[in-house]
Design brief:
About 40% of the residues lie in helices and about 15% in strands. It is of the alpha/beta class. The protein has 2 domains: about 110 residues, Rossmann fold (3-Layer(aba) Sandwich), CATH 3.40.50.10860; about 130 residues, NAD(P)-binding Rossmann-like Domain (Rossmann fold). A hairpin with a 5-residue loop joins strand 9 and strand 10. The radius of gyration is 19 Å and the shape is globular. It binds 5,10-Methenyltetrahydrofolate.
Length: about 300
């Protein structure tokens, strides 16, 4: 009988990063009178987004930062969203702007993303920041979910990922592509798999590191994973259960994979909490750049 995998505690890792962020925030306040501020723009209603936004707001305040929320009706025009972003771009109290995705269909998300000032783009979705990440420019603003995965992987591998065969399942601009860039920078041998990949289970079995970011509940099965592999589960899927309730599951069949892998992130309590902690970190880094002061954050 194979021992069960080490469960990577994303909640604890996120708590540690948030503490480091809070210490840096109070240092910036004392040394420079600088208080990093984050604005979140939400269009329409979505129960999952609500939880995310509430957690973000609370944790931003707990870290000693300014948090503002802009909730717009689902019927708002694209021009109004762009106008709000333009106002926030010029607001000196705001150093980070997050436009929550997805947006209603009548709003062009790419246009929204490109309207956010690259300096305030704490999601790292602006083409300028994506390009800097691809170029390996030091200090690029990096998307929070992949960055959180990277921090957990570095900790697990004691800082050295070089030579590992890493498989990223999913090719989105938000997770898959930036994750692949980060792993490449760590000198992993990176494969990106997607819906057209032939024989994904066989490709997966060759990987030392698997990052699953496809949005398909429990897609990665136990017999897809090499013994001893490290598995990061980015998926957040709500599965209906009897009684009208729902259960949160990842893109990985946790009970199966934890019999084979050496380490795995759970859902909830894995990648999600680290995503928010990285958002706070990016906001502090953005604030320091805008104020022209140095920043002491990992
Ligand atoms: N511009 C933009 N940037 C984003 O980063 C972004 C976005 N839009 N739209 C929505 C998705 C989703 N997302 C989550 C982050 C953390 C948790 C999280 O903390 N989850 C906890 C709690 C989950 C729960 O219990 O509901 C956990 O996994 O343990 C969830 C979801 C960021 N997203």
């Amino acid at each position: 009988m194979q021992a069960t995998a080490h469960i990577i505690d994303g909640k604890a890792a996120a708590r540690r990063l948030r503490e480091t962020v809070a210490i840096e925030v109070s240092r910036l306040q004392q040394a420079h009178g600088l208080r990093p501020g984050l604005a979140v723009v939400l269009v329409g209603q979505d129960p999952a987004s609500d939880i995310y936004v509430r957690n973000k707001g609370r944790q931003t305040n707990e870290a000693g930062m300014l948090s503002r929320e802009y909730r717009l009706d689902a019927s708002v025009s694209e021009a109004e969203v762009l106008e709000l972003i333009d106002t926030l771009n010029r607001d000196p109290e705001i150093h980070g702007i997050l436009a929550q995705l997805p947006m209603p269909a009548h709003i062009d998300e790419q246009r929204v993303i490109e309207t956010i000032s690259p300096q305030k783009d704490v999601d790292g979705f602006h083409p300028l920041n994506a390009g800097e990440l691809a170029n390996g420019t030091p200090g690029a603003l990096v998307p929070c979910t992949p960055l959180g995965c990277l921090f957990m992987l570095r900790e697990h591998f004691h800082g050295d990922l070089s030579g590992q065969n890493a498989l990223v399942i999913g090719r989105s601009n938000i997770v898959g592509k930036p994750m692949a860039q980060l792993l490449l920078q760590e000198s992993c041998t990176v494969t990106i798999a997607h819906s057209r990949t032939r024989d994904l289970p066989a490709v997966c079995r060759r990987a030392d590191i698997v990052v699953a970011a496809v949005g398909r509940p429990e897609m990665v099965r136990g017999d897809w994973v090499a013994p001893g592999a490290v598995v990061m589960d980015v998926g957040i899927n709500r599965l209906p259960v009897e009684g009208g309730k729902s259960r949160l599951v990842g893109d990985v069949a946790f009970d199966e994979v934890c019999q084979v892998a050496s380490a795995i992130t759970p859902v909830p309590g894995g990648v999600g909490p680290m995503t928010i902690a990285c958002l706070l970190r990016n906001t502090v880094i953005a604030a320091c750049r805008q104020a022209g002061v140095s920043c002491e954050l990992p």
